Amino acid sequence: MNLDLIRKDFPILETQVNGHQIVYFDNGATTQRPLPVVNAVVDYVTHQNGNPHRGAHIFAISASEAYDTSKEVVRDFIHARSEKEIIYTRNTTESLNLVSRSYGETHLKKGDHILITIAEHHSNLVTWQRAAEKTGAVLDYIYIDKETGHFPEEELKKINDPRVKILAFAQVSNVLGVEFDPKPLIKRAHAHGAVVVLDGAQSTPHKQIDVQDLDCDFFAFSGHKMCSMGGIGVLYAKEELLDEMEPFLMGGDMIETVEEQTTTFAELPAKFEAGTQYVEGAVGLVAAIKYIQAIGYDDIRAQERKLVTRCLEGMKKLPFIQIIGPKNPEEKEGLIAFEVEGVHPHDVAQIMSAEGICIRTGHHCAEPLHHYLGVNASCRASFYFYNTEEEVDYFLDKLKDVRKVMGYDD
Ligand code: PMP
């Protein structure tokens, strides 16, 4: 992997802040878009733009082609069986809402259990609170071991309860950085017929996904966290589930025939994609997938592992830094959440920002996890393949001084 060449594809990384070159460590929130992705979108908009699946003119056809072929690329990317199983949404959040509304709220009954983990992002938590409220189902949690960040066996046994009808969890936590090995959990849930919803927002950018091998029932991810444009996300679902589900949105292009009082719905995946499709987003997603595949996940992971290792080693030398979740680089998928003793995370972020360093602070949309861990808020540095070890060193150097800037003597 030629990092110098790769970084040329990201002119935004040349941005200067107060005389310092930007260090972008907020990739868990959103990644930057490389020129091949930007150019693919510009090329589509400049030469091919039309409204897909409507009309017979040249641009209706080129838009339809761009849109429909993008589904083949996404299907292949996550190894789904059929393009019918690939639904475009705005992002992971919308994908999870689609599952919760169109599957959860129509299949759950009073007394059923929805099982999620305490480490969930709000998009995989508030959605299920609502489904529980609407149906009378019970929302139950799997709690992590506070020291290791993993699930103790006692907690995992909750999955075996036959009242659990839906198990939903993030493959990689956006705070702990841990990957929860999904396959054994999925097997347990399937043993008594529960369906499994995987939130792949933080896993898909960093590792090869194979939905057939995972055997999950639903899988959600966002384009913008993997070099694509914002505003496009994916919901994968097994065809047999989508077939029996109600559409989430009603409108154009999701119908077969419409009478005054009745409608029959289109075939999959159109049934779940009402309204004019976001073709620019689909084109950008394809370009992002091709970009990532050209680099290869092996190299992506090797670079991230290098950065995480160096950063953790440096942080461990700073006695006032508390790392959240596991401290072993092998267990961190490209991100490190931490606290600086005696300094509010927002102050840390402000000080870092003045030095050109972008990190995230707050709850990271995982408020119940922060409460459970007894942490008010935290900082998070999250990496992607275009980050460098020099950037990590610069970050550590500035982190060392944060307490001094706040008036501490050390
Ligand atoms: N799940 C996880 C684990 C996430 O990290 C995020 C984004 N922070 C989401 C879901 C939601 O993604 P989006 O905002 O793209 O819908």
Describe the structure.
With 410 residues, the protein is of the alpha/beta class. The chain has 15 helices and 17 strands. The strands form 5 sheets. It has a 7-stranded mixed sheet with strand order 4-10-9-8-7-5-6, sandwiched between helices. It has a 4-stranded antiparallel sheet with strand order 13-14-17-16, with helices on one face. The protein has a two-stranded antiparallel ribbon with strand order 1-2. Strand 7, helix 7 and strand 8 form a beta-alpha-beta unit. Helix 2 packs antiparallel against helix 10, helix 3 packs across helix 10 and helix 4 runs parallel beside helix 5. The longest helix has 21 residues. The two termini are 39 Å apart. The model has no long low-confidence stretch (mean pLDDT 97). It binds 4'-deoxy-4'-aminopyridoxal-5'-phosphate (PMP). 4'-deoxy-4'-aminopyridoxal-5'-phosphate binds next to helix 4. The site of 4'-deoxy-4'-aminopyridoxal-5'-phosphate has 13 residues, from helix 4.
